[in-house]
Amino acid sequence: MNKEFLKQGFVVFICALLLTGLYSISSYSYLLFHSIVEIISIVIACSIFMFTWNSRKLLTNSYLVIVGITYVFIGGIDFLHTLSYKGMGIFKGYDANLPTQLWIGSRYLQSLCFLAAPFFMTRKIKYSGVFIFLGFVVLLFLLSVFYWENFPVCFIE
């Protein structure tokens, strides 16, 4: 047998095993399933940041680094979304609208990132400015959700 075929078969077997395990967990506890899946997405977001940040000197434009920097902020909001999910009991006094607002805000940031990043394909920029700008945007978003409470209602039970 071909070694490459055995490697691919092993990968398919492991993926099927993981998917079966996730399905079993979702049948047992949706909260546990949701937390595991969200943690995986947060790890992926942080990995995107680490790969782009560590390769920024090799890149000829700023597109990927802007995407990577944005993903570390997306991962942070997704982390808050995971902690605020109904049943976790961390954010007292909030209903199921809070995690939905955080999820929507995270997706807004992601879509704006993919909308703005192509404009930097031919430019070099200071990355500290991107961190400051995105930190300010995320701070305004979090203030809008938690303090001012003027972010639109996204889920009504």
Layout of SSEs?
Elements: H1 3-28, H2 30-54, H3 63-84, H4 97-116, H5 127-147
Textual characterization of the structure:
The chain has 157 residues and is mainly α. It contains five helices and no strands. It has helices spanning 3-28, 30-54, 63-84, 97-116, 127-147. Helix 1 crosses helix 2 (30-54), helix 2 packs antiparallel against helix 3 and helix 3 runs antiparallel to helix 4 (97-116). The termini are far apart.
Q: How many helices does DSSP assign?
A: 5
- Biggest β-sheet description: none
Shape: flat
Percent helix, as a range, is over 70%
Total number of strands: 0
SSE pattern, N- to C-terminal: HHHHH
The poorly predicted ranges are none
The percent range for strand residues is under 5%
Structural class: mainly alpha
Q: Whole-number radius of gyration?
A: 19 Å
End-to-end separation in angstroms reads 56 Å
Mean pLDDT: 94
Keywords:
mainly alpha, single chain, flat
Summarize the structure.
The protein has helices at 3-28, 30-54, 63-84, 97-116, 127-147. It has 157 residues and is mostly helical. Helix 2 packs antiparallel against helix 3 (63-84), helix 3 (63-84) packs antiparallel against helix 4 and helix 3 runs parallel beside helix 5.
